[in-house]
Structures are given as structure tokens and as C-alpha cells.
Amino acid sequence: MKQVTLHITDKKYPLFMELVKSLDFVKKVEADDEPTKAEILEGLKQAVEEMKLIKAGKLKGRPAEELFNEL
């Protein structure tokens, strides 16, 4: 079985995905889609909860400098 990596413009992406999914010989379609609004909101909600736990002393935080050094 072969794999193909393609770079498709945003404008043509929906049409291309529709076409690929309609092909009976394509076994698997993987896409690096942007996160949905719901996923972003869930991540923010989780971050706020973690901050509350850190402020309450129930969770240990990390210094910002340590995070920057990882970049």
C-alpha cells in the first residue's frame, strides 16, 4: 500500500476531500484540520480550571521562564 502527502490550498480543500472520500479504492483519509471552536473553548475551559487549582494550592505550577526555555 502506498501513501501520498499533498498540500492543497484552503480554497480547494473541501472539494478535494469530498472527491477523495468518494473514491472506493482509498482506504483511509487523514487530515490535519484546524481545531474546532468547541475544541478551542474546551481547552480554554481546562486552562482556567488548572489556573484556579494552582491559585488554590491544589496543583503545582511551573515558572514562565521554564516554559520559555523549552521553546
How is this fold's topology laid out?
Elements: H1 13-22, H2 37-55, H3 64-70
Question: How would you concisely characterize the structure shown here?
Answer:
The protein has helices at 13-22, 37-55, 64-70.
Written overview of the protein:
The chain has 71 residues and is an all-alpha fold. It has three helices and no strands. The chain has helices spanning 13-22, 37-55, 64-70. It has one domain (13-70). The longest helix is centred in the middle third of the chain and has 19 residues, at 37-55.
**Content-based structural category:** mainly alpha
Strand element count: 0
- Give the CA-CA distance, first to last residue: 37 Å
**What proportion of the residues is helical, as a percent range?**
40-55%
Shape: elongated
Regions with little confidence, pLDDT below 50 for 5+ residues: none
Alpha plus pi helix count: 3
Tell me the β content.
under 5%
The average pLDDT value, as a whole number, equals 89
Domain count, please report it: 1
Largest sheet: none
Listing every helix as H and every strand as E from the N terminus to the C terminus, the arrangement reads HHH
Radius of gyration of CA atoms, rounded to a whole number: 20 Å
